[in-house]
Amino acid sequence: MRIVVTGASGFVGAALCRELLARGHDVRAPVRRVTPAASLSGVQQVLVPDLAMDFDRHTLLADIDVVVHLAAIAHRAAPEAEIRRINIDATLRLAEAARGLVRRFVFMSSVKVHGEDSGDGAYTETGPMLPQDAYGRAKLEAERALGDLAARSGMELALIRPPLVYGPGVKANFLRLLRWVDSGLPLPLASVHNRRSLIYVGNLADAVARCVEHPSAPGSLFVSDDEIVSTPELVSRIARSLGGPVRLVRVPTGFLRFLGTISGRGEAVRRLTGNLVIDTAKSRRVLDWRPPTTLDEGLAETARWFRSKRA
Predict the structure, then answer these.
(1) Catalytic: which of 123, 135, 166, 200?
(2) Closest by alpha carbon to 107, among 231, 208, 253?
(3) pLDDT tens for residues 203-261?
(4) pTM of the entire structure?
(5) CA torsion angle 294 295 298 303 (round to 10)
(6) Using CA atoms, how far apart are residues 6 and 48, in angstroms rounded to an integer?
(7) How far apart are CA 2 and CA 79, in angstroms?
(8) Which of 6, 46, 125, 199 could make an S-S bridge to 71, C-beta 3.0–4.6 Å?
(9) Residue 153, SS3?
(10) How many whole angstroms separate alpha carbon 48 and alpha carbon 264?
């Protein structure tokens, strides 16, 4: 199969390209600059300085069967206008160009279209949509516009909503957590009793590849690792993977959230202390999909990468 992958040089994109190539697919990727990077070995690179600007999209999409659109801006510090330009405008311009040319459009959305805290239950694909930041709002708007376009054109649409992604090459919050655990400093998380879904990057790449290949993939799908863990349990397993001790101290969760608010880190604390659980029954049933890598195996791979970068 011939596949275009946007965001191919990113954290998830590089893992997906490796997975698709290993499965025997031909992969083409728009890139800001052509590079000999090992992460793009075997990928046909097409120079596209900006996905949201004018360029010859039909040349990019010629003879392509499936588009997997990963490129996005997730950084909370980015201006909302830029988040919308990349996450909505670029997405829709690519999908409009793909209409009539490709069979299926796979869009990497986010669990954030549902909000930040699932309470005591679990999010489902048909649950309430309550995005709480510019990124979640943009992903939801893009999902809805893509759905309208697919309904008009007959193009198949698969929407994937993953939770937090971790693995070798991870950045942002999970990398900060790795550094925090590795430092050996006490972590005030022993009193946190939450439940979190997350997904190893290799498992996500496997799920996306299944969405490319499986005839029943169109629709919205949640994917995650098998295990649901609390933040203290996750920290303990990270420490074990890194080969160091875990030092968890008891601080009331309400006080942690208060400290987060007054220090300007309220969102980060809410993510550490809140619930975010997703129900993956549909993806398991429809795609016959199971994550091939366990949580401990994924953390071990992440730890090996982290130690190699630290050395």
Answers:
(1) 135
(2) 208
(3) 999 999 999 999 988 899 999 999 999 999 999 999 999 998 888 999 888 888 888 88
(4) 0.94
(5) -140
(6) 10
(7) 35
(8) 6
(9) helix
(10) 37
CB 139 within 8 A of CB 131: yes
Distance CA(287)–CA(273), nearest Å, equals 32
CB 157 within 8 A of CB 147: yes
Whether 284 and 273 have beta carbons less than 8 Å apart is answered as no
What pLDDT digit, counting tens, does each position of 51-89 carry? 988 888 988 999 999 999 999 998 767 888 999 999 999
A 10 A CB-CB count for 267 gives: 16
CA dist 8 and 239 (Å) reads 31
Which residues fall within 8 angstroms of residue 273, CB to CB, at 6 or more apart?
189, 192, 194, 231, 253, 256, 257
Task: Report d(CA 276, CA 120) in Å as an integer.
Answer: 9
Residue whose tokens read 């120079």: 47
Identify whether 166 is a catalytic site residue: no
Neighbouring CB atoms inside 10 A of 271's CB total: 18
